[in-house]
Amino acid sequence: MSEPHALTVAEVIEETSDARSVVFEVTAEQEEAFRYRPGQFLTLRAGAVARCYSLSSAPHEGSRLKVTVKRTDGGYGSNWICDNLRAGAKVEVLPPAGVFGPRSFDEDLLLFAAGSGITPVVSIVKAALREGSGRIVLVYANRDERSVIFADELAVLARDHADRLLIVHWLETVQGLPGVAQLRALAEPFASFEAFLCGPAPFMAAAKQALEELGFPRRRVHLEKFVSLGGNPFETAAAPAPAGETPVAPVPSGETSTVRVNLDGEEREFSWPRQQKLLDLLLAKGLDAPYSCREGQCSACACRIVSGEVKMLNNEVLDSEDIAEGIVLACQSLPLTDEVSVSYE
């Protein structure tokens, strides 16, 4: 998970006047590292910075990977990608990460997206239509008709899967900004569905409040947040210690906990030094634990505390409800209790 790969840009697609899709070729040798689930993201070296962009392709579409980038005012990474990347360019990319996506594509899905928030959502839609049996409702908000990313692709999906897919477009120039009351009305007929939200913070807050007012349980509401990384994992992330090697920072004798980790269907148990972050421990033990930024600024390393207690040194992505459900960031977690049980399931 830690090693960046040089991927070749196969093509750059102009989706709208301010959004581009970057399609990467993945070689046979890179295929295993770049297997992904719908809803995950890639971390790219964009000039002098690292940025996370959701995959808008779906796994069944072949070996090419596609991320979609929308320009933001003053956004160095997005503007650099839109201005500089062309077919044939090489880009350093970290393998897929993230936990935004349904556990089963047979579930009924209620999807709220706004602007470039459609990128992980369209991947989920395409995969669910191909692999699942559930109904899908997509509410997609944009400024105007010209701002709708994937407009043609979504129209084809809606036409070909009219029995399962309903798409509701919301245009600010026609209907104004979508508020809590409007989003609540749109969601009310689908109160038993699993909900996924992605878009600008005000839109996500309104949609989340609308679902809360309808009585959606927190466990059925999933949020994907776009956060610009403060550091650069391509330059500043220290390489993990080899399996079994003692961490660099000295740990006083006796100041350890015991951690049980369920990852990829296997449970392992380790002694956990109290001054060592959980992610660093797992990587040192040779586990393929997911991560990207290592700074507490993305959700790539998120896991669940089943029992015991940890302290997070930094957290810029999880909200209080996530934490109340036991979700933590492994890259920032230190043990507080003598025994801790962690699950990545």
Task: Please describe what this structure looks like.
- This is 2Fe-2S iron-sulfur cluster-binding protein.
- Its cofactor is FAD.
- Residues 257-345 form the 2Fe-2S ferredoxin-type domain.
- The protein is an alpha/beta fold.
- The chain has 3 domains: 5-97, Translation factors (Elongation Factor Tu (Ef-tu), domain 3, Beta Barrel), CATH 2.40.30; 109-224, Rossmann fold (3-Layer(aba) Sandwich); 256-343, Beta-grasp domain (Ubiquitin-like (UB roll), Roll).
- Helices cover 20% and strands 32% of the residues.
- The protein is built from 8 helices and 18 strands.
- The protein has a 6-stranded antiparallel beta sheet with strand order 4-3-6-1-2-5. A 5-stranded parallel beta sheet has the order 9-8-7-10-11, sandwiched between helices. A 5-stranded mixed beta sheet has the order 13-12-18-14-16.
- Helix 6 links the parallel strand 10 and strand 11.
- Helix 5 (180-187) packs across helix 6 (201-213).
- It is globular.
- Mean pLDDT is 89; it is low at 237-253.
